[in-house]
């Protein structure tokens, strides 16, 4: 009995250790941004919002935030309907096409992002789209599509097809049945997919590193040069903004799922 | 013979399926499949010979060293993730709902924090003047231990970032273990240790293997962590690729390096999918 209790205590201690390890960098970054000093220290010294002021007033940082928001919003607008249609199409596949379809849609997640980045760099350089927001949106759409499809497919799996058939048998056209019955039922999945698409684009660094050029610098790319050249507390302030966005979107997603 | 209405209905059905899939196929083919195929073709189309870049990778010691280091550090990362992830997965699989929620909250808060943010945070925490070295200083070890800008830093960062990919598939397999099997082993006279080793471990081995393959594969393609937490000697394959694009502008050599990384990833994914049901892990996220 004692050896069992010992093992149980050991797993508790290990679990607590790992939980702290997992949370530590997330929790530590916020205090870093409110320091009065010109350099990053932990624990911070004093209290000041000057680095947030830098973030929102300097051209480089505020421009990067605007670029990130526009890119993420456009990616969401492009990826959500295309991904939703794809999930509906994949659900209609039969036999061996099911497996092929599933692998195909997961490929952008399986292939290392750096490889996708290099490949897109080659293509967009030929098209003259490096350093443009449309170029970034195209790249981010590839990354975001699988997440939209996964989210919509998850809801679709639980959707009772007979409701749609009932609408059809009551005289609704296929399109009317889809618009009035199927789509409203799929909305939680579509909304979750849209949030994932936004976050995928807003959080991406590796694709943007290749595609951003000097004309479409996103917040993570700006952070990267901030970290590379001087470890400024402005990077911590930008990190807090990214963290805030993740939390906001996750809360939204949780709220969507609950309804 | 098929009756006409049924046949036409089937035709409409498949036309609708194709139409639904078309925009996504168009985007994925045009923006992903074709560019990646082009990348592979580019890597073989040098005027000096098709295999010139690959020969360079195989012969120049620096490139071999980068490859070997990427593989080695990724293997150690996978092992560390299993070591640290196993007890957490066990707790996650067998804990009360509240315990489960707490562990999942920690995992997802970490998981959803931007990679760059976590790397930056680690840079500050593991800095020679950071809290860890200050704490080590109190017990007289402050200056002797360097935690960042070396392999230690890369391992800490990689392990922290990839742990969820070990914990979640492992916990999924563990929660499917029938608890009566352990009781049966105990009632047949096995000690708790023996029951654990002879019954539990074989039942969860597939989950551990799936986690190991997943973490190893993801680690191979890592860029941010080795670039920010490693020293000059800790270069990963992905950094070499980036260097050849943004610094030396050698796109075709970068393409060859990318093809090597892509091939390794796809082979590992195939192995994981064939033997350890890795596909369910991806789909289940």
CATH class designation of chain B: Mainly Alpha
Report the total helices of chain B: 13
Please write the string of helix (H) and strand (E) elements of chain A.
HHHHHHHHHHH
The averaged pLDDT of chain B comes out at 88
The greatest interface here is: A-B, 83 and 81 residues
Report the CATH superfamily of chain A.
MetI-like
Please count the helical segments of chain A. Answer: 11
Biggest pleated sheet of chain A: none
What CATH first level of chain A would be assigned? Mainly Alpha
Give the total of beta strands of chain A: 0
CATH homology group of chain B? MetI-like
Structural class of chain A: mainly alpha
Radius of gyration of chain B: 24 Å
| CATH domain fold name of chain B | MetI-like fold
Structural category of chain B: mainly alpha
Looking at the overall shape, the CATH architecture of chain A is: Orthogonal Bundle
Estimate percent helicity of chain B. over 70%
The CATH architecture of chain B is Orthogonal Bundle
Looking at the structure, what is the overall shape of chain B? globular
Tell me the domain tally of chain B.
Answer: 1
Q: In the residues of chain A, how many domains can be counted?
A: 1
Throw out a few tags for this protein.
heterodimer; A: mainly alpha; MetI-like fold; 11 helices; B: 285 residues; mainly alpha; 80% helix
Give a written overview of the molecule.
The complex is a heterodimer of chains A (259) and B (285). Helix content of chain A is 81%, strand content 0%. With 259 residues, chain A is mostly helical. Chain A has a single domain, classed as MetI-like fold (Orthogonal Bundle). The longest helix of chain A has 33 residues, at 59-91. The N and C termini of chain A lie far apart (46 Å). Chain B has 285 residues and is mainly alpha-helical. Helix content of chain B is 80%, strand content 0%. Chain B is built from 13 helices and no strands. In chain B, helix 11 (237-246) runs antiparallel to helix 12 (251-276). The relative contact order of chain B is 0.12. Classes of the chains: A mainly alpha (259), B mainly alpha (285). Chains A and B meet through helix 1, helix 3, helix 4, helix 5 and helix 6 of A and helix 1, helix 3, helix 4, helix 5 and helix 7 of B.
């Amino acid at each position: 009995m004692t050896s069992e209790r010992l093992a149980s205590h050991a797993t508790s201690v290990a679990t607590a250790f790992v939980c702290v390890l997992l949370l530590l960098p997330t929790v530590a970054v916020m205090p870093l941004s409110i320091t009065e000093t010109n350099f990053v220290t932990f624990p911070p010294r004093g209290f000041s919002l000057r680095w947030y002021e830098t973030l929102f007033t300097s051209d480089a940082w505020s421009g990067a935030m605007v670029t990130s928001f526009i890119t993420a919003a456009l990616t969401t607008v492009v990826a959500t309907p295309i991904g939703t249609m794809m999930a509906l199409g994949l659900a209609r596949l039969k036999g061996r096409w099911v497996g092929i379809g599933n692998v195909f849609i997961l490929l952008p997640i399986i292939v290392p992002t750096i490889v996708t980045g290099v490949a897109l760099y080659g293509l967009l350089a030929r098209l003259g789209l490096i350093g443009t927001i449309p170029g970034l949106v195209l790249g981010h759409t590839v990354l975001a599509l699988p997440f939209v499809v996964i989210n919509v497919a998850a809801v679709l799996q639980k959707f009772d097809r007979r409701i749609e058939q009932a609408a059809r048998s009551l005289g609704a056209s296929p399109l009317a049945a889809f618009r009035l019955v199927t789509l409203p039922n799929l909305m939680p999945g579509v909304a979750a997919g849209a949030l994932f698409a936004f976050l995928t684009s807003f959080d991406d660094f590796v694709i943007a590193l290749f595609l951003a050029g000097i004309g479409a610098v996103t917040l993570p790319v700006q952070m990267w040069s901030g970290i590379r050249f001087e470890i400024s507390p402005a990077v911590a302030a930008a990190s807090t903004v990214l963290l805030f966005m993740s939390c906001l979107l996750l809360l939204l997603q949780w709220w969507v799922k609950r309804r | 013979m098929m009756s006409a209405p049924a046949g036409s209905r089937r035709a409409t059905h498949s036309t609708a399926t194709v139409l639904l899939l078309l925009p996504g196929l168009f985007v994925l083919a045009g923006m992903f499949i074709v560019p990646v195929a082009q990348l592979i073709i580019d890597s073989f189309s040098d005027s000096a010979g098709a295999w010139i870049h690959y020969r360079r990778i195989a012969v120049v010691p620096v490139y071999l060293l980068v490859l070997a280091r990427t593989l080695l550090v990724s293997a150690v990362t996978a092992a560390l993730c299993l070591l640290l992830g196993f007890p957490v997965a066990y707790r996650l699989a067998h804990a009360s709902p509240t315990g489960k929620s707490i562990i999942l909250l920690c995992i997802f808060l970490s998981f959803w924090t931007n990679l760059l943010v976590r790397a930056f945070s680690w840079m500050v925490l593991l800095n020679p003047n950071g809290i860890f070295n200050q704490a080590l200083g109190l017990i007289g070890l402050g200056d002797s231990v360097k935690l960042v800008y070396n392999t230690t830093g890369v391992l800490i960062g990689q392990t922290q970032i990839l742990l969820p990919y070990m914990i979640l598939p492992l916990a999924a397999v563990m929660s499917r273990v029938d608890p009566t099997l352990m009781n049966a082993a105990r009632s047949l006279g096995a000690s708790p240790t023996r029951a654990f080793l002879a019954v539990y471990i074989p039942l969860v081995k597939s989950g551990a293997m799936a986690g190991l393959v997943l973490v190893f594969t993801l680690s191979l393609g890592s860029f941010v962590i080795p670039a920010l937490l490693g020293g000059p000697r800790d270069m990963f394959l992905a950094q070499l690729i980036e260097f050849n694009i943004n610094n030396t502008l050698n796109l075709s050599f970068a393409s060859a390096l990318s093809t090597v990384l892509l091939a390794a990833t796809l082979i590992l994914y195939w192995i994981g999918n064939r033997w350890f049901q890795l596909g369910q892990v991806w789909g289940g996220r």
